[in-house]
Amino acid sequence: MIEYFIDIDQKFFLFLNGIHSPFWDKIMLLITTSRTWIPFYLFLIYIIFKNNKVKTGLWLVVVILISVGLADFVASGIMKPFFMRLRPCYEPLVSIQMHMVKDCGGQFGFVSSHASTSFALAFSFTALIKKYRLLNVFLWIWAFIVAYSRIYVGVHYPLDIFFGAIIGCFLSYLVIFIANKSINQLNIYE
């Protein structure tokens, strides 16, 4: 049964990865590079502090950073070494059929850290900062595009992305749940 899902995942990867052009190669390489988004992250921090007292703003930033950091740790530090699923670019039968845009990176890819962290950021920000609906919609679209870029550049299968996104959202929910209990006990909003 697992082999059946792996086969479908590989075929779906090859289909999605096969849709490419030199123009999109450059765009997706830019999108998949984490440093590209530093100004965007700083903008999000600005939005948080613009609309909250310093103490509350710091608390919100810390909760979001813990969500993203935990998502990255679970994806890269626990799941990849545990499952040891090769990235498509290391899979001999897949790598000869795929389009590679960048270097392959680490050997294992299940689950995608980019997907887990981008969805953790989107989930935690939109759950905590509800005022900016358009920005929140953009964050979810951004998370999907960042996650898809990993398939495009050839370093993750669709299931790596799917489960990375689920883990990012779940861990963010868990961190926010615990933080809300702490906020009630610490009276952070007073």
UniProtKB/TrEMBL annotation:
<feature type="transmembrane region" description="Helical">
    <location>
        <begin position="108"/>
        <end position="128"/>
    </location>
</feature>
<keyword id="KW-0472">Membrane</keyword>
<dbReference type="InterPro" id="IPR036938">
    <property type="entry name" value="PAP2/HPO_sf"/>
</dbReference>
<feature type="transmembrane region" description="Helical">
    <location>
        <begin position="56"/>
        <end position="78"/>
    </location>
</feature>
<feature type="transmembrane region" description="Helical">
    <location>
        <begin position="135"/>
        <end position="155"/>
    </location>
</feature>
<dbReference type="InterPro" id="IPR000326">
    <property type="entry name" value="PAP2/HPO"/>
</dbReference>
<feature type="transmembrane region" description="Helical">
    <location>
        <begin position="161"/>
        <end position="179"/>
    </location>
</feature>
<dbReference type="Pfam" id="PF01569">
    <property type="entry name" value="PAP2"/>
</dbReference>
<keyword id="KW-1133">Transmembrane helix</keyword>
<keyword id="KW-0812">Transmembrane</keyword>
<protein>
    <submittedName>
        <fullName>Phosphatase PAP2 family protein</fullName>
    </submittedName>
</protein>
<feature type="transmembrane region" description="Helical">
    <location>
        <begin position="27"/>
        <end position="49"/>
    </location>
</feature>
<feature type="domain" description="Phosphatidic acid phosphatase type 2/haloperoxidase">
    <location>
        <begin position="60"/>
        <end position="176"/>
    </location>
</feature>
